Amino acid sequence: MDGFLTVDQLAQMIDMHPRTVRRYIREGKLKAIKVGGEWRIRREDVKMFMDGNAQVLQQNAIEDVQAYIDGFDGQISGKFQVCTVLDCYVKDNDEAYEISKIVMRHMNEDEDHGEAKSQYFYDKDAKKGRYILWGNPRFVGRILNSVGEFTGEQN
Which CATH architecture group holds 56-155? Predict the structure, then answer.
């Protein structure tokens, strides 16, 4: 089911609580189907949902970054912390989404990332994927290096 996401996967990807994602499904704001008693969301439906909510997500991201700057981000801790905004100018939403999968792979598979979070949204007018990353510098650096390798950008 490579073309589908679970509620938990989507929630982590867009930095929402799984209950919020389920509420969006229940309210009909997000299309989903039940498979084996669990909701599955098609990637195409995620794209449509994200495009429709880009301004809300962007405002939430701005508020989260400002909270970090002001020292009020209680979700990230540790001696060294970093918050970075990565803007990737791409040809379309599919390319931006591929980059988001790189970020999510690190969020899901890196064992030593400590407390970290990420947000992603696509601005179709600017053809830009925006990725906001919080965590320890080494972890965020690995993500940035992976994105650089994927896009062919050099340091």
Answer: 2-Layer Sandwich (3.30)
